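Predict structure. Input: ABC transporter ATP-binding protein, 264 residues.
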Amino acid sequence: MTIEIRGLDVALGGRPVLKGVSLDVPSGSWTAVIGPNGAGKSTLLRAVLGLVPSRGGITLAGSDLAALKPRQRARLIAYAPQSPNIPVGMTVFDYTLLGRSPYIPHLGRESARDRAIVAEVLDRLDLTGFASRPLDHLSGGERQRAVLARALAQQTSVLLLDEPTTALDIGHQQQVMELVDQLRLSDELTVVTTIHDLTLAGQYADDLVLLSDGRVAAAGPPARVLTRAAVEEHFDARVHVGAGPGGRPILSLERPLERPLERP
Ligand SMILES: Nc1ncnc2c1ncn2[C@@H]1O[C@H](COP(=O)(O)OP(=O)(O)OP(=O)(O)O)[C@@H](O)[C@H]1O
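Output follows.
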């Protein structure tokens, strides 16, 4: 489903956080929102979800998102937040089952199908062995996968992921990114993710949106957005940008002084 954002303004605590943000996310594409700390990346996702008041237009497949009831919206857009509330004592299975809430009738119970969907998602995320463990007894990375599981169990056309890989080891980063990519291709999901790892963003996303101080500073294919000059200007970092597979950029930090690898 195509997402169109036009002239989006968000103010939090009386301070402008997003200023006239416009962007198009084509149906079935993966867009990564990058930018320095505090640029407004999480706020952009939260505005799409209607979790923060905003001015401007956000449409999903041409329909105004503001006109949808929360339950309708939850059948279209799933969200994996950066710092979710973790209910104490709730098991991974029951937490993932919360993703089925938009489909469970009021005062009703989940169906066998809901439980089967949860079991399948847990399997895809290597979490079957954790199903009966309380979430607050998991490591940060295991918990992060459970939060993603809950979003996937929602079976929506749009997936918004806030920093989905920060707590993950390199193997699970690859696993999660590959899984999201597979789902996007097999189920035609539209994915928007914030992400700090610029190389990872450039490896997977079709388009990058560089947010800086609440504005879109650059948008387009990774090789066009991730330039040495842009990274220096907006992140105040010195990097070398090389060309990886498919011409996608690979970034490595450049230290100010060359240091020998081994002590003499
Ligand atoms: N509830 C709030 N009230 C006031 N200011 C807020 C609130 N939430 C966020 N902000 C401010 O809005 C700005 C954007 O925050 P946001 O979390 O969207 O940034 P971000 O780009 O996701 O940052 P990070 O990379 O550090 O996660 C920050 O300056 C932050 O301090």
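The mean pLDDT is 92.
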